[in-house]
């Protein structure tokens, strides 16, 4: 909402510099996006001039050399190219040094050998219109008072106060459509600054003739639920033409292009009152009857912009005897619009259902100044305010004759419920007392009615005691916004100023702040990775369907149960990621493309799949990706280890062991992993993720180098398996006995299998078992490999002897031999 | 005999003192105390001496041997120390070379680091950290937060839909309702999380992160909100910060405010050299979040009589993690946070 201060000051003119006014508004709830300067600058150089002579330029057909009187005997020679410049015209002149609205600074010029000291202006050059066909002739401007103002030398600003002004660009919150009009803003300024507020321009301006039917015009509202009020007036003898410069100047300053006097009047009245209007050419309304109704499914209207619009059964249109002529509250129709030959105007001012207008404008992709106001919900009372403003202007500017009567279907809205405002509530919500007199003063400034509580029920409000607070009546234009006591507290708080609020802390009885266990353990897991030199990335939740192909997922892959967006911003963001592997590969791709080939990355974030209850399934995943060297080559380690299955497994172990989770991996294939180097991560008997080297074909599509190693786990399930409280175990009273064991097993036997058999055979006395060496080669023979194990034996109640340990070891060797054909090596 | 012993001792002492290396010392030891040396043999022969000489000679020889032994031990220690010193002195490394193998420092992403910092501030203020679903019911995201049916945030141009009544949450606020549904008052929680809006330019990405705050108790006031956010602003932006509340509108708070923190980059909008501060654009205030007292209608959506707006009151706020991180670390473009470029990642966390 652009509010020219020149216009605002007509109703409320606080004695404040524009910038301070902007701050005051911002601090009372009206956000000021910017404060702009509109129009030309160096204003004293813009004056009224009289053309004393206009003679042909000696060297240019299209130029005239004018002598222009600028007052007090001052005559300037100005070269002018406009076709309409003529002797004895009163014109607008910019003298050298003047700054035009587009920022151009005017200088003395020589045009084809003739000096020119200034410029005779067209209206677009002044910024008060769009016409550039000729210079602005001020003789035509007059409203009959062609008196002193047109004396040469008069500052142009005296004639056109709207020529240059500061403009407040306001961001009006959706609850305040009353501030989408200059007068509504003036009311706010009044409350915020205390500067007096002039009576509203429509007060007392309602013509007494406004009652009863209007001859030759009929309105039928078939869907009153969507059209609470429809008013119409009719004007005869309308002369369509340009609006006067003062009105054009205000429209331009407010950001609206002038069109013709009738359309400009509807825009002007809307900008002033916040209530949109629409002018029909009544002679083009078939049958002289307007019908307001829901559209039939698929019905078409050609709007003002020449576009055909197809409506659905919930959209409201205005039809005449020939069919639809206008989309209610959104845009008028081409067929009945006001044209140059229009002589009879039907001025429609109606109230529409906000949500319905919002829906229509959304579905049609059609937003207008009108729909932007209607969709927020206007008060039916505002219709007559706008009619009243338009009435005066129609008579003054178009020479129109009002036809007696006023069509009014629906009438005023219901009286808002009175509200109780208890002083105790003000203090309870704000944490600070505000005197009741001050409360009343603020509410009155905002046009609320205020009385001391009478001590009895008023309306629906049970008033407990007299003197408890204020009984407040809400003005119609705030009917939707202020419905409860808390809403009144807000009005008082914002106008009184929040600066005075003390800064206190809540008492917090019994509350204590702490992280939940999963949050604490998630931090621990992330910290382990950071400590291992990995960098965290934050990827997009969105991804492309193409990801599923790039990961080679078969049709029945559970990862294909993706959550799809109904309205993605692009195909690349059409689904929610079913795995974090994609974003890690993306991050790796980005960095490799920028010359960083040694990468150790992790991500900690949500993944999404369909299924479950009303909401899709979401879990928090922790995943890593390793690419290239695990550490930089250095003077001491010129060939550092590279990313591999076991490097990733080592990092996985670091995380899971830090969380004290019991875990294993078992061979398991994933379509996106190297089939020989992939595994399922198992925690508490359940598969919680994968570990492996990424399939070379997948690696290739991201333009990475083989091998890429990765794992991903469902962190929620991992954390759930972590012990809640660690319990002390006595490991010192009876020290352990340590022995090593090397066995030769068939190469196909997984190491985990050897460990499992040995663990079972070792029983209670085997406290720990660990593989520390693997050998394949000549010494153990083809198809065999040797595994070396650290064994640790311990009893809780005694210190074991070597003989005790030997016995258990022998049992283990026997079991390995029986179950896995294992032979002890070197024995 | 005694004289000979004295002579042997003197010779021995001379040789030991003169030994310049441990090898020379060993040679001297063998020469004077070895199996073939005269002094030990002399001691062994004491038994063959006449009885009246045995005592005297034996004592003298023994003393001489002990003295030599002690001297050799002392000399050995001396020589070994010197030799170790010499060896160590030769065994010198260039301590200015980098450590090896290197232990690269990993980093948390700036967003995670900032989120944790914010969480920690509120943990210290007595708030508990909760989390909630990112795909959310329209009921929690809009309806129960008192959004009018025509509120523009519901538009498909603004919000991602994944079903008729399912959206990607547009803020962390739906967790206000979920938190109240599962916990009676008093309730002090912050809810960090990822949120989504259909917007993409230098200052908007379709996904971003927020921290929601909610405090509901018998006597929570707008002044408590101010104090809490002042404590937060000072913890994050420095202890000399101030906050100011500006009235605003949000459907689910009443009164609603926007909160500004005093600019930490300038004085009254101007830098030392007198130029206008680019961070706060000369206003001396930085907008950091939206907040307010919980709207009574919101309590009505929580089906729990303990949330009766006549008996309890609360405040809520929602802040953007990206905004805090960018302000604090002078990150100029939001999109840098999602490029995951190592040259960016290495700078933070």
Name the overall outline of chain A: elongated
Please bin the fraction of helical residues of chain B.
40-55%
Q: Structural class of the secondary elements of chain A? A: alpha+beta
User: CATH superfamily of the largest domain in chain B, called what?
Assistant: Bira Bifunctional Protein, Domain 2
CATH architecture level-2 label of the largest domain in chain B:
2-Layer Sandwich
Q: Helix count of chain B?
A: 12
Strands of the largest sheet of chain A, in order across it? Answer: 26-29-30-34-33-32-31
Residue-averaged pLDDT of chain A, rounded? 92
Number of alpha- plus pi-helical segments of chain A? 21
**Gap from first CA to last CA of chain B:** 86 Å
What is the structural class of chain B?
alpha+beta
The oligomeric state is heterodimer
**For this structure, what is the CATH class of the largest domain in chain B?**
Alpha Beta
How many β-strand stretches of chain B?
Answer: 10
Strand order of the largest sheet of chain B: 1-5-6-10-9-8-7
Tell me the β content of chain B.
Answer: 15-25%
Q: Mean pLDDT of chain B, rounded to whole units?
A: 93
The figure for the number of domains of chain B is 2
Biggest sheet record of chain B: 7 strands, mixed
Query: Low-confidence stretches of chain A at least 5 residues in length (pLDDT < 50)?
Result: 142-146
Strand residue percentage of chain A: 25-35%
